[in-house]
Structures are given as structure tokens and as C-alpha cells.
Amino acid sequence: MPVRQFPSRPNLDQLRHQAKDLLRALRNGDPAAIDDFRAHHSPGFDLAGATLADAQLVLARSYQASSWPELVFVCEVLDATAHDDVEALRDLLARHPYLTRDAWKDPASGWIPVVAHAADLGLHRVIGMLQARGARGVSETRARPHLRKWLDMLRLLGQLGAQAPRDAVGGAVEILNGEDFAFMLEVGTDIEDWRPSVALALETYARNPDGKHRILDSIDRHGTTLPDTSPMAVHRGRLDLLARHLERDPGLLTRRFSHEEIYPPDLGCHADHALALHGAPLDGATLLHMAVDYEDLVVARWLLDRGRRSQPSRFDSQGTRFRARSVGSRVSRRDAARLGPPVPRPVLCLTRGDASPHRAGRPRMTASRSGDEVPVARCSTVTGRSLIGHTGNLRPITQSTVRDSSRE
């Protein structure tokens, strides 16, 4: 007897009637019912002593469920998913934890595609609902008490095999939305090859140190070993790792790193240097220049503090200054009317040595009081897609200038 096709919207009452009909057909000597019992019940089973429980077991196995209770569970899960019933779904998965996630990957379970498809539909439906209510990301959804249960719903759907859209995963990395990215991994999103995500996190135009650190740490925790290098420690914002590297190499703070050391090709970074969307050329840059370009105030201050301790003459007598100030994004008049007043944001300023700070494409770390203006890449506001609608303020490359702080 061929295996039955599991319906996309099973009706539990109908299945109960099917089991009764199967038992009645067996007692009437129906050949198809006899074949069902021989195929799906234990070998040597006495057909004459069959009960309704036996018929239910045979019916469940014909639908590729291991037992009647499992078949009932799947029907109830599909019903709760279709009705976006968070409480019912949470209770079901709490009562049957062994039937989630790993069970969905069992090729012997014929209902897996049905459940996974229903979970995907539910995930898209919940995301659409959150978008309609104005939620633009996980953090914004979590900040609204009446919407928090829907984050639980997304987690539950992830347990049932739902997958976040691919563009949402890439979108979260592109705009360095670490919270959305970590949430998608928590939900259970499968990423077969982590290298594109790592490369995008390193090379993206967006500037959000905390988000970048969280993305890279999430990737590291999920089994992708990131190289133990000082540039990667800056990317990750790991001051503990930087301290270890500095102990091993006292000259680390003045060392210059190649583009390939900052953007490792082994992690999927592009060979074309132009595709690394940094603010200033970083080929030959120091760790401090990396931190400033990534607007990582914590790492930059840590590096300057260690530099003053180890090389006070270089960092103090020449007047090196480091500070944070707030500026508004530069936008056109038309965009300004649409976006409203610019929102001040911190900008890191590092003074540079001579009138040609990028001579030979190598940023200089030495400082002076010359007051020369140094063009650097800055950003203004755009939006990018992550898990829930549009999230965060993003910044495409524009031009602005930073003046030596000693003149202000």
C-alpha cells in the first residue's frame, strides 16, 4: 500500500473517522485495509485482534508519523500556526520538545515539508503584520510591550523549520544590524557558507561598531573560526585580544597592515580593493586608522591610551589629538524636506601629519598642529532591509572634512 500524502491543512476529526473506517474495512476483509496493517503494523500482528488504537497507529504510520499522538500533535501545530496562536503553539512545543527542530530534519517524517512550509508562511505573515504596525527591527519590536509576543512567535516558527528570507540575512549584515542578525540565528536560520556574511560585515559601507562586533561574535560562536590577528581583533572590538597581541608585539601600535591583512581573502573578501567600502584607503594603515575609519570610539581610545603609555614622546609631544564631536548628515534640500532635521551623530577625528596625508596611499599616524584639512569619507541617511522591514540609519559615501582639533 503506498504511503499517504500528508495534507497541508489536516482535519483531526477527519483523521479520527479515517481510523474508524480503516478498522471497519479490516474487519470486513477489505484487501487494501489488510495491506495497510501488514505494511505499517509490527510483523506477525494478529489482525483478528485489531482495535481502534491499532488502526490509529497504522493510519499515522501511513502518513509517515511514528505514532498516533505524533500525528495529532502535527495537526494541532499546523492549526495553531495557521491561526497565529502564539499561546497554543508555545504550549504544544513545550509539551513535545523532542519533536521540534531535530525531528523536522528526519527524512522519514512525511509531514516535514508541510510543517516547514506552514512555518515559513507564518513567519512572513508575522513580519508583514509587524511592518504594518510600524516596527522596523527586533529592538524596536522588543521596545513595544504589545508586540513582544510576536518575537516569541518568530522563535517558535523557527523551531518548526521556518527560515528567514535570504535578503533579510544579508540585509542585516550589510547595515550592521547585529541584533536582527543574532535573532535570526537564534530563531534557527541555516547559513551553509558563512564567508559571504563575514566579508560583507568587514567591507560594508555602514558604520555601527556595536552591530559589527555582535555579527562577528555570533558567527564565531556558530562554528566559524575567525583568524586570531590584531586587525580582526579591531573588527570585533575585542580589547582582550588586542591586549594579548600587544604583549607579544610591543611595536604593534605603529605597525602598518596591508589591505589583505585587514580584509582577508580567505574569508571571502574581494581582491579588488575598491570593493572594501572604507572611508579612507586602509592599505598600509595602523590599527588606530582602522578604528577611526570604522567609527569605533572605544577601540580608538584604547589604542591611543596604550600608545601614550608605551610611546609618550610620539603621542604627546607632537600634539596628537583624538576627540568625538557631533555633526549633522549632509543631505540635499529636497531630501532634507523629506527626512526632517539632521540628527547629530558622533564623528571620530584623527589629526594627520603633513599637507599630503595620503601620500603613496598610506595614511600617516604622526600628528601636527598645522590645521590642514583632510578629506575623509562620511555618510548620510538611507535605509536598508533587515529581518523586519527597514531598520536603522545607513550612510552612503559623501565628502566632508575634518579640521585639526588643535585649531578649534
Indicate the topology.
Elements: H1 12-27, H2 31-40, H3 52-62, H4 68-82, H5 86-95, H6 112-132, H7 138-142, H8 148-159, H9 166-174, H10 178-187, H11 195-203, H12 209-221, H13 230-236, H14 239-248, H15 259-262, H16 287-293, H17 297-310, H18 312-317, E1 322-327, H19 333-339, E2 345-350, E3 374-379, E4 382-385, E5 390-394, E6 397-402
Question: Could you describe the 3D structure shown?
Answer:
The chain is mainly α and 408 residues long. The chain folds into two domains: 12-159, no CATH class; 166-407, no CATH class. Helix content is 48%, strand content 8%. The chain has 19 helices and six strands. The chain has helices at 12-27, 31-40, 52-62, 68-82, 86-95, 112-132, 138-142, 148-159, 166-174, 178-187, 195-203, 209-221, 230-236, 239-248, 259-262, 287-293, 297-310, 312-317, 333-339, and strands spanning 322-327, 345-350, 374-379, 382-385, 390-394, 397-402. The protein has a two-stranded antiparallel ribbon with strand order 1-2. A two-stranded antiparallel sheet has the order 3-6. The protein has a two-stranded antiparallel ribbon with strand order 4-5. A hairpin with a 4-residue loop joins strand 4 (382-385) and strand 5 (390-394). Helix 9 (166-174) runs parallel beside helix 11. The longest helix is centred in the first third of the chain and has 21 residues, at 112-132. The protein is elongated and about 95 Å long. It starts with 11 loop residues before the first helix and ends in a 6-residue tail after the last strand. The model is unreliable at 316-332, 342-347, 351-383 and 390-408 (pLDDT under 50).
